[in-house]
Amino acid sequence: GIDILVNNASAIWLRGALDTPIKRFDLMQQVNARGSFLCAQACLPHLLQAPNPHILTLAPPPSLDPKWWGPHTGYTLAKMGMSFVTLGLAAEFGPQGVAVNALWPRTIIATDAINMIPGVDVAGCRRPEIMADAAHAVLVREAAGFSGRFLIDDEVLAQAGVADLSGYAVDPSQPLLPDLFLD
Q1: Model-level pTM?
Q2: pLDDT recorded at residue 46
């Protein structure tokens, strides 16, 4: 059976509307929101039979703030699509005991995706392990009654008793760079 689905796949293109080729736009919509929905749809029959089923999507808290939409409408639409898939599936399957939640990093994470963000110095990023540890903390929770939440990595770890996050920094001497979609 399947006990857990983690929707981590994502396509990124941080450009304005006139600088976004339609192929890039389509790729982001297909991978991000559509991909999350399709994976959930395929896994849900199994998750509904699992003892502690979770769907965890790497998506930001929903936002209609124009400051996130104006600079890169296509990407924001794709990521918010993932957030709204999370909301919808949580409403539909949370009452049946499936935990459907989203997790988002407070700071930029040092992955290959940062190559798509102009001017990012990896020294101001956190290592991917922070997201892995936060995801683990979410996925070991009792699924029943824990659904429809938009969680932030450092808050999840603080609730799990992790007080010192400095070990996650690529360079602890540098200020951390905030990720998109958080105020």
Answers
A1: 0.96
A2: 99
